[in-house]
Amino acid sequence: MTAPSLVPGRGVLRSEWIKLRSVRSTTVMVLFATLVAVVLGVLATSSDASGAATMTAQDRAQLDPLGDSFIGLIFGELAFGVLGVLAVSTEYRTGLIRTTFSAVPRRGRVYLAKALVVGAVSLLLGTLLAFGSFVLGQAMLSPEHLEVHLGDPGVLRAVLSAGLYLFAVTMIGFGLGAILRHGAAAIAALVALLWLTYPVGRILDHLSYLPSRMLLFNIADAITRAHPATGKPALRIPSLDLAYTGLALYLVVFLALGAWRISRDA
């Protein structure tokens, strides 16, 4: 006898899409991420532009137009992560997860359907937000001829990677929501993972830079740069290969743990 497929059908996917777009928190998180990312990016790049007249040649060479455009994503990523958490934890809080499992007993199909819907939405929105932040940021820098273009080496890759990173944070939050099943606890764990691990990595730097290089904060720095970091801070920034590998590991670990946890009793 052939084992039942875990691939979700159209009905399951449609149901998860309706749930996601009907929850008010989805709209709130998306709007918050957009507002923070755009406002902070514009403020940072406008500050660069206003100081262009007094910049030395060395200052211009050290300017990071991409990094300043994406500075708002440091905070916007939390909104994406919370979106992932709430996409799965809300049903546990309300008890509606039991109804979902009654309608679709194959819990793996439910989990996969949720992951596909949340992943597709976050990848699309993250990519749009990354390009929007880039375009607005470079528009602020353009009058002073400080901007970079998508055709410049490494720029398109960095912009696409910014969207990819927002998708990854969303799915890590999704995994945490499935693992902990409690929104507040999962969000606290997400905050710790995104930001509170940074000082721990700095403490361990005297032993090895590898822990710092595997932190999400530094992975984001690596993949959203058009050019590698230089100087002493570069010791904590992973290479592109290590950064993408590390991001993939985060996704595999948290999504796998979430799948295992959701297969337990609701």
UniProtKB/TrEMBL annotation:
GO terms assigned for molecular function: ABC-type transporter activity
Signal peptide (UniProt feature, chain positions): none
GO cellular-component term (any): plasma membrane
Keyword Protein transport listed: no
Membrane found in the keyword field: yes
Membrane-crossing segments per the record: 28-49, 69-90, 111-135, 155-176, 183-204, 242-260
Record keywords, A-Z: Membrane, Transmembrane, Transmembrane helix
Name of the molecule in the record: ABC transporter permease
